[in-house]
Every structure is written in structure tokens, then in C-alpha cells.
Amino acid sequence: MEQRSAMANNPRRNTVQSLERGLGVLEAVSAANGPIGITELSRQLGLAKGSVSRLVTTLVKLNFLVRDPETRKYQLGLKLWELGSKSITRLDIRGVARPVMEELHRVTGETVHLTVLSSEGKMVFLDKLDSTRSIRPNVQLGAHLPVHCVANGKAVLAFLPENQVAAILANRLQRFTDTTITKKGDLMAVVEGIRGTGYAVNAGEFREDVSGVAAAICDHTNYAVAALGISLPSSRMTEAEARKLGILVAEKAREISTTLGSQHDEASRGSSPSSRGGA
């Protein structure tokens, strides 16, 4: 009732009312236990359904909210994640990660890279160190890759809130190679395993000739803000090599996470985002 009165009746003179109401919608959606509808938002905010509908439509258009076509309810969109990622970038995540990347590069001789999630649900390369070997993958800074078929994408999915994962995977999972995972149930089973091991593996799922491993870099809330990864030709990626590089990249990602304030103990690593209060 207090929220309703504050939103509907607060006679502030130096604020933009529509912006204030839009931010109120975002706060209400964020506080909800799951997707929330127009009627409930109207009740909580003390605004007419028509007003709430217009605000929500605008927020969906700008990717701040996502609408479930079946339930017609709303949840937070990827634009908020992008803004949060940019905030982390302002803390110079590349500067924090670079010495660790250089050490990983020195030890492995393989291509090492740093990626973040974009508002479109793609993994974007922020930084890289190319392999010293003659045969190596071509990693382009700024390239956007689908999350479901690259190691860095799957690593990040393992440490995001459930509603954000649902928004990212809302569309059909496109097949790129014979090993691409295209069923969401199968992908989520893999993601659950990543929470236990601490690293993800790409077995030629986006490009047959390129494989890799990656681990999430988490902030003080233990949610992923980036991923540290290693890419190499599939011809060099044996099961034993994947395990060795995976353990190593997970260790190095935890070093970066610790610098960002993450409490990366075994309990938090093995739990799902929802069990840590982020659904």
C-alpha cells in the first residue's frame, strides 16, 4: 500500500514522472518471485492498467523487459545485464584480467580470451592473446557468438539468475555443427554440470575445427560478469586436454573473481543461481 501511494500520489516537482514510473515498474519486476503480469503491476504501483501497459511496452521495446508469449507476463531483460556489465567494465575488468590471461597464455601456449554477454544474448570478445602455435583459431575482438554452443557462453549461463537464462534461451537453439546442443533440456543438464566442475567445454559445437574451455568470472554477488576462455584447434582437444585446461582456466577465473569481490568457495560454486537468491 505504501508503494502504491508513493507511486500514484507523490507530488514531486523536480522529477520526470514517466521515468519515475518506468523505473518503478523495473523495481517491481525485479522484486517479483517470477514473471509478473500487467494486473499485478497495476495493483502494486497504484497505476491504471493502460498506463502500466504503455510503460511495459516501451521497456520491452528497449530490451529492459521480456514478455513470455504464453503467460503474457514479464521479467527482466538483457539490457539491464548489459548496463551492469558495462559498470563492471568501468572497474577495468580487462586490466584486472590481463595479468591472469598472460600467465594462462604462458603456461598453455593456446589462445586465451575474455568475453562478456551482450544485450542480445551473445558472447562478445573484449580481449585476447593469440596462440604461439602455427595452427591456431582466429579470434576476432568484438565478434558476437551464440551462448549455447561456445564454452564461454555455457560457463556464463551456469552463474546467471534463472529468469535471465530463460530470456537468453527464449528462441530456438540453432544448430551449427553435428555436436551443437539444440534441446534446451540437454543444455540445462550441461549447465548444471558446469556448476559442479567450474568450467565449460566446447567440443566443436560452433565450428567443427575449433574447441575450447571457459570458466565464469563472477562479481561480489557470485553472478557471472564475464568469462575467461581458451580456444584451440579441435585436433588438439582430447578429453584429457579438456580436463587439464578446464581445471586450469577455472582456477584462473577464480583469481579474477576474487579481485572483483566474489566469495568463490565450493558451496557457492556448486549451487545454482536460484539457490543463491537470484531467480
Automatic annotation (TrEMBL):
Keywords: DNA-binding, Transcription, Transcription regulation. SMART domains: HTH_ICLR (SM00346). One of its GO terms (biological process) is negative regulation of DNA-templated transcription. Residues 258-279 are annotated as: Disordered. Residues 79-262 form the IclR-ED domain. Residues 16-78 form the HTH iclR-type domain. SUPFAM superfamilies: GAF domain-like, Winged helix' DNA-binding domain. Residues 269-279 have a biased composition (Low complexity). GO terms for molecular function: DNA binding; DNA-binding transcription factor activity. Pfam families: HTH_IclR, IclR_C. This is HTH iclR-type domain-containing protein. It comes from marine sediment metagenome.
